[in-house]
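Board notes (copied after class):
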Amino acid sequence: MHEFELINRYFSKISKNNKSALNLNDDVFFDKKKKLAVSIDTYNEGSHFLDFRKPDLVIKKIIRSSISDLICKGVKPKFYFISGSGNKIKFSTKNLSLISKSLNQEQKKYNISLCGGDTTFSNRLSFTIMSLGYSDNIIYRNKVKLDDDIYVTGNLGDSFLGLQILRNKNNFGKRINNFFIKKYYQPDIQISIVKKLLNFANSSIDISDGLIADLEKMINKQPFSYQINMKNIPISKYLSSIIRKYKFKKSRLVSNGDDYQVLFTASSSKSRIINRISKIYGIKITKIGKIISGNHKGIIKDQKGKQILLKKKGYIHKF
């Protein structure tokens, strides 16, 4: 059963009287009167992170991916709770010290504070993070408008290639490998423009499951579709070099998720302010496509302008 089918079948009805739950169809809970936004995520070893041989880096990855849910909504994260399930091996004295050190580093980097959590025994390692922030408003997921431009921050694909290296499926030498592995464990989340997003974005989501998969979530049941130009999707110099040298398909590398960049739509009249914000804050913000009528299926064009089909649009949560 697909994640959204599960939610719609069993949980949507019992939350419909709670407007702040946003029909269980967004990344956050948002109480407009109290100006409170809350996000919660669970991360399992083997599914959401490869293993726990580098606990200090795993913790950084899950903290950043958690607060990115708030950032893409235009909310600055302020507090977080963390709960962990594991055993004496996973939660050894050494590992706990590394976890504590990483949490402290992330707190200083993003100006967030630990508020509590829980620990339980389990032979299956998992973490649950709840992030909180305050804001007068948020950018909702399903507010796409016809003819909106589609934008993405940062670069895509580096994290996926880092995962492939960790899985021993690719090897490009120590220096190149380390670059991609770092992007997997420490994604460049765009907290510096968090409040500016509210000035121009009509709809937004963070890229966790994959560019196309998350774009389709953002459109959801609205009567729209999309046209994406693959050549415009931003990638790093390292990834561009790898694609040229090894003849990899760009479309496969940029559509697998774990990027935690902000994917958003905006009216074409906002292009100047978006470009200005990009320059002021030194953050790459790239227009990659356009929202079109729902009479058409999603269109992805390659570098030569020909339409391409993706075998995999991103990660699918199934039960």
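Comment from the instructor: The mean pLDDT is 94. The first strand starts at residue 29 and ends at 31.
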